[in-house]
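Changelog excerpt

This revision adds worked examples to the README so contributors can see how folded entries look when concatenated. The first example is reproduced verbatim below.
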Amino acid sequence: MRRAAVTLGAALAAAGCAKSSTPPDPGLEGLALAAVDPGVAIPGTTLVLDGDSFVDEPWGTTHLRLVGRAGGADVDARVRAAFVDYDHMHVTVTSGLLDELGGDVDFVGDAIVEVVSAEDGETYASAPLPVELGFRRQLTPVVGQLQSGGVIFVNDPISVEGEGLLLGGAEGSSVAVITGCFQAGGAGACAPIAPVEVPLVPETAFSRTRATFAFVPRIAGIEPGVFDGEVTIENRPAEGSITAAAPAAAGYELISSAIFRIEPSVASLGQYVFVEGGGFVGPGDGAGGATLLQLDGTFTPTGAPSGAAVDLLLVPEFVAGRTVRYVVSEDDALGAAIDLRTVTGTFEGTVTPIVSFGGVEVTGDPAAMTLGIAPVKQVVQLDFRPSYVESLRVFGLRAADQLVRARILEVVRAAYPGINVEFRTEAPADFALYSYVELHGPDPNGMGLFGYDNSPGKDVNNERLYDRLGGVNALTQQDGYPGYGGVFIESLMGFSQHPAAGEPLPGADATFDEIFDPIRPDGGTPITAADLSGGLPDVSDALACPAADREARVACAIRVMGSLVGTTVAHEIGHSLGLANPMGEGFHNTGDGPQRLMDGGADRPFLERAELGGFRAAMFCDTEYDYLRSILPTSEPADPTPRPVCF
C-alpha cells in the first residue's frame, strides 16, 4: 500500500513549529512515488516516474529530488518534472544534471516527488523511495547473443541480447547494420547485399539488455531463400559519438507469407479483424510494399437457406510482420457486396495473403476462414480530461474523482438499455470507428454550456459512427455555432443560488446548495481521503438526499454530481446518434415532458437531472427508443420500463 504525501509544514509541526489548519490539498493527499525508470540514464533519457496523485500545472509545480550518494559524494539534486497523467511524470536527463551528480556515477539513495501546491501554497512530498540509478555520458553496446539460424518470415523480429542498448526517443537509438548475401530459392549464386540499417526496438520500455530488429524486405526482398551475413549493433546517441559492438554472424531461411488465425470470428461495421500469420509487408517498408487479402467462399445471410459466392480483394492495415488488421467497412469490396448496417451472416471460405515489394509479388497459401458479420455496434469513449478532474475542486469533490466517474458511467449505461452501445474510458483497440466524448471543467466557448455536440449536422441513422464531441470543429464555427464540444462540469455550478463565480441560472435550486454547500471550499469542508476510507452509506433512494450527517452528505454529493454529469453525457450522445426527432426538424423534444432525456436544457430542471425529490431517471421517450433499437440492434430484449411519449 502506498503511503500518502506529507507537507513540509507537517514535518515542521512534528518538530514543534506551528502549522496551518488549512485542510490538505485533496489532489495531493495520495501523492506517492512507486518507481523511477530506466535504471541507467544518459543525456536525453526520459526518466519515467510512476506513482499516484500527480498534478498538472497550474495546480502544482513538481520536482524530482534525489538525496543520497553518487561517486563517493553526498548529493541533493532537484530537477523539474513534467505532468503526463495522474500516475506518471517525466524528467529529462541533461548534461547539466550529470554535472551536478558528478558525471559517470552510480546514485544510491532516495527519490522523492515534491509538489508546491497552487491550492494552498504548501510543499507536498511523497514518501522516500530507495533507488539505485546509473548516470553515464554515453553507452557502448555489447552483444551477448544474436538470434541466428532457423526459418523466419520477412519482417520477423530478430532478438538481440546484450548490454548498453539505447531506448530511442530523445536519448538516441541503437541500430542494426546488416550485411551479407541472399540466395533466392533455386538460384545458384548468393547475391551480395549492400549494408541495411534497421532500428532496434527495446523488448520492454526500459530494457537496455534485450531488443529486436525487424528483418525488413530491404535486406533480402520477399521471396523464399537463404540469407548469410553479419549484424553489427551501433549506438547513435543524441549527444556524443557513435559506438559499436563487434559484428555477429547471422543466417536465416526465409519462407513465403502465411496466415494462421483470424480474430475475432464475429465482427461488426467499424470493428477491426486481426489477421495473424507471417511475412506481411506494409507501405512503411517502401518500394511499393503492400499486403492484400483474397477472400474466396460463400456468404450466407442470417436465416437464409443458402449463401452467395464471394470473391473479394481486401486491403488491410499493416501492424507488424506477423499481424495485419482489416476494418469492416462500407467503403471497400465487402461493403459493396453486403449492406453491413442491415445484413448479418457468415462468410465461410479461404483467405490468401498476397505480398508485394519492389515490383515482386508473392502469393502465400490459402487458409480456411470463417467470419461472422454482427449487427452495428456503437462504441463510445469517455475521456475525463485534466480540467474536468481539477474542476471537481469547485464542488469539493476532487478527492472523490473515481467515485464520481463510476456514478457517471452507471447513469450513462442505464440510459441505453437494450441498445447496442458500449461505453469505455480507454481508447478502443478493437474498433476503428467509435465516438469520443471529452469531459472538461470550464466551457471553452465561454457560454456556460453544460454540454455541446459539435459534430457537423444531424447524423440521422448514425451514419458516421465516429463523432467526436470535443476539441474544436471548424465546420460548426462556420455555421455560427459554438466550436468547442464536450461536457463542461463547471457550468453546473449555475444551479447554485450563490455560485462560486458568475450569476445563478434561471433554474437555480436551493436543493443544489443543500447538497453541495457542506463540502464546497468556499464555505464548507471539501471531501478528503478520510471521508472515503470507511465506505459510504447507500443513498440510491431518491428521497435520501439532502442528508444531515457528514457520511451521507458526502455520498449524496457524489451521487448527485454523477447524475448531473451522466445525464448530460447521455443527452449529448443522443444528439450524436441523430436525436431528438430524427426524422424531423430540431434537436430537442417539443415542450416539457416528464423524464424525457432529450428535452431542451430549460425543460430539464435540477431535481430531474439529479434524480431528487421523487424524480426517476430521465430516459428516451417512446419513438426515440424505438429508433435507437432500429439503428443499433441487439439480441437483448427491449427494456420493459414504460416510457414517456415523444409527441
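The second example, added in the same revision:
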Amino acid sequence: MTTHLSSRHPSVAGQWLRLLAGLLGVVALLAGGCGAPSGGPSPAASVESGPSNSPISNTLPSALKLYVSQPGIYRLTPEVLGLPKPVDWQRIRLRYRDRELPPFVPPGGDALYFYAPPPAPSRYTREDTVWVEFGVEPSSDMRAVAAPPEGDREITTSLAHVVAEENRLYQPLAGGTSPWFWAQLAAPATWETEITLDHVIPGEGVLSVTLWAKTKAPINPDHHWRLFVNGQPVGDVARDGDGEHVVEVPLPAGLLREGSNTVRLEAPGDLGAVDISFLDRVAITYPRELVVNVGRLRFEAERTGPHRVRGLKGPAQVFDVTDPLAPQRLTGVRQEGDEVVFTGQEGRWYEVVTESGALRPDRVEAPVLSPDLRALTGGEYVAIGPADLLEPLDPLLRWRSSQGLRVQVVPVEAVFDQFGYGLPEPAAIRAFLKHAAQTWDPPPRYVLLVGDTTFDFQGWTVAREVNRLPTFMAFTVFGGETASDALLAQLNDDPWPDVALGRIPASTPEQVQRVVAKTLAYEQQAASLPWRERILAVADGAEASFAADARRFLGQLGTFQTALLSPPAGAPDGAKQVEQALNEGAFLVAYFGHGSITLWGKDRLFAADQVGALNNAERLPIVVQMTCLTGLFTHPNVTSLTEALLWAEGGAVAALAPTSLTLPTDQSFLADALASALTASPERLGDLFLQAQRQVPVESQGARDVLYTFLLFGDPALRLTPSD
C-alpha cells in the first residue's frame, strides 16, 4: 500500500500545463466482438559519469539527471552524485523543466540543498527529473528570509493528510490521468484496509474516499456506500451516475487513534440497480503534533505565530516551500536541543529537515547527449528505438541506404534526454519529429519505431523496463483509452498524421531480427510471382454485412485478382479454410468481421495460436484487419494476433491493425481510402497507409477513433513492388 503524508501541497499545475503535452489514451479487453513538450536542456558534450551507485568518475561531467519521485528538500554530496571530491557547489546550476531551481550551500560548502517540486502528473512515469549542470554559475541562490520566533502562544500542531492507495486494476474506460484502481466493489460488497497514523492528538478529522462508478441506471440515485472507521459508522452516502465520485465525511474527535486505523467501505446493493464501482484512494485528514518523521516534516501553518517542531536529531534547516519553484530558507530560527521554533505564516507551507533527513535522488544518470539530435540535418528514413533493439536493424538500414534513402538512426534515450527532460514520454518523440520536419533537408518521410510498450507504463503490475518505447493514449468512444502511434506522427495543427510511421513492437533483439529478415526476403523476391497479383478478403460469417463490406473493398481493386472467403458462422472447418488460403499466398489479405486481441471471429475463424502452423514464409502477405483489438500490442500479458503474425517464421511481412473497438461503418472510411490508395500503385507501404489516413474524415468521433487507433506494424518503407 502506498501511503504518503501531507500530500495537499501547493500546486505548480500552471507550469506543468505549459510544459507537458496532453496525455491521451488503451483497451485491455481480452475477448469479445467489435463494438459499436517542448525541448529539454540544451545538448552538451558527451557524458561519462554514471549513477550514484556506480564507481566514482575521475572527471566532472557536463550534466547529470536526478530522478525524484517525491517533493522535498534534497541534499547532494559528491558521493550521492558519484563524483570525485571536491565539487565546486558555487558553479552548479539546477534545472527543472524550463525553470532554474535555486540552490542553498551551507557554510563549509560540503553539500548542496535544493527543493524538488511535486512530480508533474504523468501517465508514463512516477518520477520527475532535476538536471544538474556543472561548471556554470546559478542565476541566483535560494533566498533567505527572516522568521524569528514572535508571540507568546506557541503552535505545536497542524493538520496532517495521509493518503493510501494501491494500483492493481486497470480500467481503460475511466480516462483521466490514471485509469488504475485499488479494488472493485460489485454490490453487495465490502472492502477494508488499515491506515497507520502517528502523533495523533484529540480533534475532529475528515475521511475522503475517491471512487469511480462504472455503472449507471435510470433510477436516481443508483449508487450507495456506507463508510466505517474503527468499526464505527461515519457516513451513509448515495450518489447518481457513472464517473468519479469523491465522498468526504467528518470524523468525530476521539475516533482516530495512534497506530493502525481500520477503514471499511460497504456497497449494500439495496437500490434496485446494478451498482459497480472501483475504489481509487482513501485519505484521512487529522490533527497531528509537529514532530519530525525520519528527520523531516512538511506541514501547512494553520495560523500565524511561533511554531515549535520537536523530534530532531541534529541541527535542522527550515524552508518555506509554498512556491515549489522558488523556495526560501528561513533565518532567525531558534533550535533548542531536539526542537526548533520559528514564526510560521498562516497558509504557507514549511519543511523542517536535518542533514540525515534530507532526501536523496532515486537514481542518478548521465544524460545521452550524443549524438546531438539538434545538429542532424536531414534524412528521409528515421529509425528510433533503444540501443539494443537498433543494433539488429543494421541489415535493413544498409538496404534502405542502398535504395537511395538517407538514413538516420536515433536512440530513443537521446530523444528523451534532448527533447523530453529525460522522461520516457511520447511527447518527446513527437517533439523530436516536429523539429526534424521543420529543420531537416530532406525531412523525414518514413519513421520506424522499434520497441514494445504496455498500457502499464508505470510498472504497477509489470516491470517498468518492459516499456521500451511508449506511445500516446487516445480516448475512444467504445474502448476507452488505447494505444495511438498515429498521434506520434501528427506534426502540425491538423488532425491527420504527417509522416508514414510504423512500429516493430519488439521486446527482444531476436524479434527485431525476425522482422528484418522477413522484410529483406520479401523485397528481394521476384516481382512476377503469381501470388503477388492476388488480394484475398476474409469475411466473418457471423453477420452478412461483413461479407458485403469485403465485396465493396474488393470491387474497388480492378487491377488485382481478387477472392472472397467467408465461411458460414460456426463452420467446423472455417479456421482450416483460412489457414489454407493464407498458405497459398496473397499480396494482401484483408479481414472484415468481429475480433479480439487474439482472434478473428467469435468462433475462432483464425487465432494467434494458429500462426505458428502457417507455412507461407515464401509467400508473406500484408494483412489488413478491419476489425477490433487485434493490434493491441500494449497488453502486458497477452501476445496479440498481429504480433504473432510478425514473430512467426511465416505469418505476415507487415500488418495494419486496430488497438481499440470501433464500428464497421466508421472502419469503412479507412477501407475505402486504402482501396483508393492501392489503385494508385504507391511505391512503399507507408505511402499507401499515409495517403489512406489523410482521406479519413474527422467530423465524427467514431471516424477519428479509426484514424488514431489503426496502426501500421512493420517497416513503413516496405517496397510493395520488389525489383527483379
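Reviewer comment on example two: The chain has three domains: 63-147+291-363, 157-289, 373-713. Residues 6-33, 35-57 have pLDDT under 50 and may be disordered.
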